[in-house]
């Protein structure tokens, strides 16, 4: 239970060949699998952790409630409370615990959902495409064709996918970097972080941390919150600062 509140700040530096020069050092703070209604003190704990951090945008990669059904109001209110002090743009996608009902409520608070959509981030004349897809795990409502509409094939693309199981499609479609969650890194693990139980939607090497599939680089967060019970063992919760670096001749 103490581990549940001991949220780690992880720093992940990602070198991308196609990253425009103006975006060198661009930092994305990823929060995922918040399940913020699981414990009443959790939103304040996350706020304390992220308050001193410096980043350019926030990415929220799904699971904004503990239950998979029933009324979402308490969980949505807890999420809004958790994010109330964040001043940078906040982009979100839906997870397998989420439904569309919470989207208008959260968007009214300035949290922009990418529902099989993309947004163009700009620094001067340079552009970075941030693409978000719907849950590929339970609802299977992800639609790459719609999300990539009007996105040039030769541009640098960062994908928000609740589960890392989209890794093959993301690599085939020319994404440069994928951010995911869903797995909780196992949540209850053997020493060394060895995962005891997972849903087999993704291979083991994708369940936590950095990984690669051809040209595609990916990162699966251990998750910020917890599911079922507010406990963690040999698998600490995290928020992740992804620092993008140029690796090409921009």
Structure description:
The structure is a single chain. By secondary structure, this protein is an alpha/beta fold. The chain has helices at 2-5, 42-50, 73-82, 103-107, 144-147, 167-172, and strands at 8-16, 27-31, 57-60, 90-92, 111-113, 117-123, 126-132, 157-160, 177-180, 189-190, 194-195, 209-213, 216-220, 238-246. It has a six-stranded mixed beta sheet with strand order 1-14-2-3-4-5. Helix 4 (103-107) links the parallel strand 4 and strand 5. Helix 2 runs parallel beside helix 3 (73-82). The longest helix is centred in the first third of the chain and has 10 residues, at 73-82. The termini are far apart.
Topology (elements, then pairings):
Layout lengths: L1 H4 L2 E9 L10 E5 L10 H9 L6 E4 L12 H10 L7 E3 L10 H5 L3 E3 L3 E7 L2 E7 L11 H4 L9 E4 L6 H6 L4 E4 L8 E2 L3 E2 L13 E5 L2 E5 L17 E9 L4
Parallel strand pairs: 1-14, 2-3, 3-4, 4-5, 7-8, 8-9, 9-13
Antiparallel strand pairs: 2-14, 6-7, 10-11, 12-13
